[in-house]
Amino acid sequence: MASNRATTASGNFVLTAETLNKALPKMHFTTQAVHADDFVSPHRAIAPAMHPAVNYRYARDPDELVEMENDDPNAPFDSHVYSRYTAPNSNRFEIVLKTLFHSDVVSYSSGLSAFHCMLVHLNPKRIFITEGYHGVHGVIDVVSRLSGVTKLTLDDIDQMGPGDMLHVETPLNPTGEARNLAYYKERARAVGAFLTVDSTFGPPPLQDPIELGADLVMHSGTKYIGGHSDMLCGIVVVHPDRVKEGWGEKLREDRLVLGSVMGSFEGWLGIRSLRTLHLRVTRQAQTTEALVSWLQKGVEDRNSIIGKVVSKVSHASLQKDALKEGWLQKQMPGGYGPVFSMWLRKPEHARRFASKLYVFQHAASLGGVESLVEWRAMSSKEEDPLVIRVSVGVEDLEDMKADFTQGFQALLDERS
Asked: Which position among 131, 155, 379, 405 has the lowest Cβ density within 10 Å, counted as fewest Cβ atoms?
């Protein structure tokens, strides 16, 4: 990195924001997550401050007033006017995200806000979509009342045409199964449609839909980007080619008037969380693959404790055809995601299973450091009453296995 060094008049090396920004692309994800915002703050604190201010004083000298600007010479990387436009914590959060995602990233108050703004930006006549998260379908229903957008499934993509929106969630909620993004990108490109991806269940470093050609990628940052079950957040990543076309600026303009900005406290929490994103997600993905493999072996043995209670397990790592074809490894080189589902043999077992567990908490959402299970019937009347969604945290694998084993046994003991 010597070529990026700046020197003083005396010839001594001095690190500046410009030299750091030149060096950052050569650094690894884990290092970037800690240092991408080193020069944002006007003071020398290592940890970011929490700034709750809504508005910011203009220059006192009238000769220094510039319409629609408020550059602070004491904070050249952190100047603001009004928090609905930009704010210190969300701005710093986006700076780190931009480094990690290698393109422009726009933050929002929630994952559904992020999806809503994508839909408003593209304003399609038709959207082709997987089953996936039910909240996204609710947003489409609301927008449909205003724009008349028509919702179709991926089975209908032969009807897709110019300007249509092809939205693929992968890995899929709640099964954790993956969809072939390279295939859908080719289908979209062939007819002039836009490919948008919900990559919430496949955060970095697991997969990068932008690299595979997605125009826009959304994450419910409430999950892995937040990672501690304490913040609401959404983000949209813009393909570099679309950044050149002004999509990032337009998304921010829309966010300004729609009011879907994230709060200062959430921005502060998000910066904290990004520092350990790689460490958390890598560990969670590795543990999940091992746990799923253990469960699958138990399902295949009908006489085992697992086999007596569980009839099926779903996860990307179990997609044999996708693994054989090779696209799954290429799409998810960092691991196959920390969420999976299992189907219990009896509805009463599915309803009661969570109450038997010590390590796994029974709660909605996912992606935190703590492991969760959710009887999916709690989230929607349309969910299969046999399904349990599992979100793997950072606890020890052997403790998770033991917890499931004793939980399954407790269900069997109740029967007798």
From this structure: 155
Contacts of 178 (CB under 8 A, 6+ apart): 170, 171, 172, 202, 316, 319, 322, 328, 331, 332, 336, 337
- Assigned CATH topology for domain 277-415: Aspartate Aminotransferase, domain 1 (3.90.1150)
Q: How many CB atoms lie within 10 A of CB 131?
A: 15
pLDDT at 97: 97
What CA–CA distances, in Å, run from 364 to 80, 368, 401?
36, 11, 21
To the question of pTM greater than 0.90 for the whole model, the response is: yes
Distances (CA, A) of 413 to 102, 292, 362, 380: 53, 24, 21, 29
d(CA 197, CA 183): 13
Q: Which of 101, 7, 93 is nearest to 50 (CA)?
A: 93
Q: How many CA atoms lie within 13 A of 241 on its CB side?
A: 8
Q: Would you tell me how many other CB atoms lie within 10 Å of the CB of residue 286? A: 16
Residues 6 or more apart whose CB falls under 8 angstroms from that of 34 comprise 275
CB 373 within 8 A of CB 354: yes
**CATH number, domain 63-274:** 3.40.640.10
Sites in the chain below the pLDDT cut of 50? 1-4
- What's residue 12's pLDDT? 80
Please state the domain extents for the chain: 1-28, 63-274, 277-415
Task: Specify the pairing of strand 194-198 against strand 216-219.
Answer: parallel
Burial of 342 (C-beta count, 10 Å sphere; 0-12/13-18/19+): buried
pLDDT attached to residue 4:
44
The answer for residues whose C-beta is within 8 angstroms of residue 76's C-beta and 6 or more apart is none
